[in-house]
Write a structure and sequence with these properties.
This protein has 366 residues and is of the alpha/beta class. The protein is built from ten helices and 17 strands. The structure holds flavin-adenine dinucleotide. The site of flavin-adenine dinucleotide (FAD) has 40 residues, from helix 1, strand 2, strand 3, strand 11 and strand 15.
Length: 366
């Protein structure tokens, strides 16, 4: 029987394990802190799934395809994993917005263009008075991230996947003589596990997320009244109150470099003040709302934001899968299938995902 060890039970590792086990592989899935743990990028409460990706049609198609598979997982596990909130793209006259509208149109993904007046009357709780308009992707929504990955891993166990809590040292594993395929889907740990190969290709940054409490009985900030919203030109986004956790606001701009293992995950007063400034500007009736929860996570950025999917140089049976770069969660099901296709088919990943030929650091994917 063909065998693989997948190291890292975040969204990429879990879906890779899923794709391989479906094809008859014997899989061991290992994570040193457990599936979707609190240090992992996949361990957050919620993640947006949207097909709007500027002109990057590959990610548009992948996200649409992934949503079908997330919904299938939801049906199989009987757990609520997705809420169709819609996603509202703001950003004034930005080329990204125009490209998104045109790519979604050509991929036949429904959208609505709201002019400034329609935006204000349809979503009065959002304050973008200078926007000439905004693009709504009604089929987009939010995934309950930690819950979804943990549900997936439970379903993997039921189908015979062995799940272990253990730290894997790549040096030991890659030296072992077995013919097993190894997949390192280790998120922000990748540069420390493979410093020579990945130290200059993956940059973990600290990212903070805040959940504020709307007044009792005020439904304007819950789905479906408030959609997911993103304003990439000012580096902020938010989600409605889901599962009564609070209205989410986050800064998408890259924070300072961090070590995912040792980073202290509390937020300080100046950071809360900055989050409140976003509220004051964009959701003004929540400006003084109480902070209910905060989460500190990390993006595992590649130099340009495209994922890393490739063999470890010099090791035909060892794969690196990561570089979610702040947008990877939604794509988990498709990444897993893509990796399984490569492992089985023996082909080369598309150039954009390869380790070699990465451009210097400049973010190109939002
Ligand atoms: C604040 C925030 C908001 C985001 N918002 C979105 C969004 O709205 N939409 C979206 O699509 N994406 C979003 N993302 C990005 C997305 O969450 C990540 O790209 C994705 O979760 C990365 O998954 P992963 O499996 O590669 O990494 P991880 O989830 O970090 O998993 C890696 C795993 O590897 C394990 N590991 C590491 N080293 C070892 C070792 N040596 N031995 C054993 N185990 C090991 C870790 O414990 C960890 O569990 C966001 C990320 C953050 C931080």
């Amino acid at each position: 029987m063909r065998r693989a060890t997948v190291v890292g039970a975040g969204v990429f590792g879990a879906w890779t394990a899923h794709a391989l086990t479906r094809r008859g592989w014997k899989i061991t899935l290992v994570d040193h802190h457990g599936p979707a743990n609190s240090r992992s990028s996949s361990g957050g409460e919620t993640r947006i799934i949207r097909s709007g990706y500027g002109s990057l049609a590959r990610y548009t198609r992948w996200a649409a395809d992934a949503l079908v598979q997330w919904l299938d997982l939801e049906q199989r596990t009987g757990e609520r994993l997705f809420v169709r909130t819609g996603a509202l793209f703001l950003g004034g006259e930005s080329a990204w917005l125009a490209d998104t509208a045109s790519t979604l149109r050509s991929e036949q993904i429904p959208t609505e263009w709201l002019d400034g007046a329609e935006l204000a009357s349809r979503f009065p709780q959002l304050h973008f008075p200078d926007a000439s308009g905004a693009l709504l992707e009604p089929q987009a929504g939010a995934l309950f991230a930690r819950r979804a990955v943990q549900a997936l891993v439970r379903s993997l166990v039921e189908t015979g996947v062995t799940v272990r809590t253990e730290r894997i040292d790549p040096a030991t594993l890659t030296r072992e003589s077995s013919d097993d395929v190894l997949v390192f889907a280790c998120g922000a740990w990748l540069p420390s596990l493979f410093p020579e190969v990945l130290g200059h290709l993956v940059f973990p940054t600290r990212q903070e997320v805040y959940f504020f409490g709307a007044p009792s009985g005020d439904t304007r900030f819950a789905a479906p009244e408030l959609p997911a919203w993103v304003a990439f030109d000012e580096g902020v986004y938010g989600l409605p109150d889901l599962d009564h956790r609070g209205v989410k606001v986050a800064v998408d701009a890259h924070g300072p470099p961090v070590d995912p293992e040792s980073m202290e995950r509390s937020v300080d007063a100046p950071a809360i003040t900055r989050a409140r400034e976003v509220l004051r500007r964009r959701l003004p009736s929540l400006a003084d709302a109480p902070l209910l929860e905060s989460r500190v996570c990390q993006y595992e950025n590649t130099t340009n934001g495209h994922f890393l999917i490739d063999r470890l140089p010099g090791h035909d049976r060892v794969w690196i899968v990561g570089g979610g770069s702040g947008h990877g969660f939604k794509h988990g099901p498709v990444v897993g299938r893509y990796v399984a296709d490569l492992i089985e088919g023996g082909g080369e990943p598309e150039a954009v995902f390869q380790l070699a030929g990465r451009p210097p650091r400049s973010r190109a994917v939002y």
